[in-house]
Design brief:
about 270 residues, alpha+beta, globular, Alpha-Beta Plaits, single chain
Length: about 270
């Protein structure tokens, strides 16, 4: 979701397939923190979140998931507060996305979670096994924009999320963030959206990229029509979209699904 998210809400437009970089090693070494995306809240929020998107060879998806469970277990043993895995429901269905918190970037100077928990030989073995299943991979480090988000604590966590990666026009990021704050988020709140997340990738992404996600109550919600149209008039929806049109170069949207069997949160 984002300005392209606005277009999604008006037209329910296309599903996106990310271009991925060649794979090397899978998920980065990360430390504790917590995300508001589907996971329990913590009093201390992380300064960064690391998102790793991996395209897996179709015939090795089951094998890859087994290794991903080992990696998740290593993070749990290391004390990482949460570990979140999505697979792609609408888009490139060979993709898995894992997200973990980073309290501060300097934490990455220490030994990796895999090395600390499994030892160097064990981590190298797991890395080789995962790489054998992998076709491509990319990772970015992003800062959560909590002041732009919607998080109704009483709302149950959903399985499906609409994710949009938007490329903002050069020099217009401040205007775009203001549009999110003053126009788009209030419209989503009026429409009854319970959870809406905003991440600003800093490393590993194109300059000017912003990622937003909106939780779906269920897939049937899409059949009910564009979410903004449920709370706003047609003219109001057009005005919100028009304000964003000059701010955006491109956007790409997909539906992702939380894999509870490949995730854990601070309270579990």
């Amino acid at each position: 979701m984002s300005s392209g998210g606005a277009r999604l809400e008006i037209l329910l437009v296309m599903v996106r397939r990310h271009t991925l970089l060649p794979a090397t090693v899978l998920v980065a070494t990360l430390s504790a923190g917590c995300s508001s995306v589907c996971c329990a809240q913590s009093k201390v929020q992380p300064s960064w979140m690391a998102s790793t998107r991996t395209s897996v060879k179709p015939e090795r998806k089951q094998e890859f998931e087994g290794y991903l469970k080992q990696l998740m277990a290593a993070h749990r043993r290391a004390g990482t507060a949460w570990f979140l895995t999505f697979d792609t429901f609408a888009g490139d269905t060979t993709e898995y996305t894992t997200i973990v918190p980073v309290m501060k970037f300097g934490d990455l100077d220490g030994p990796s979670v895999g090395t600390a928990v499994l030892g160097q030989p064990g981590w190298e073995r797991l890395s080789r096994n995962m790489a054998r299943c992998t076709a491509a991979q990319t990772r970015h480090y992003a800062t959560p924009q909590a002041d732009l988000e919607i998080n109704r604590a009483e709302a149950p966590a959903g399985i499906y999320w609409v994710e949009t990666s938007t490329l903002v026009a050069p020099g217009r990021m401040s205007d775009y963030l203001n549009w999110l704050r003053d126009d788009y988020r209030p419209a989503l709140e009026k429409a009854g959206v319970a959870r809406f997340q905003v991440w600003l990738p800093i490393f590993g992404a194109a300059a000017g990229e912003i990622v937003t996600t909106r939780m779906l109550e269920n897939l049937a919600e899409i059949d009910a029509g564009a979410v903004l149209s449920r709370a706003l008039s047609a003219d109001e929806v057009r005005n919100i979209a028009a304000k964003s049109a000059a701010l955006v170069t491109s956007s790409y949207t997909r539906i992702v699904r939380v894999r509870n069997d490949l995730s854990y949160s601070a309270d579990k």
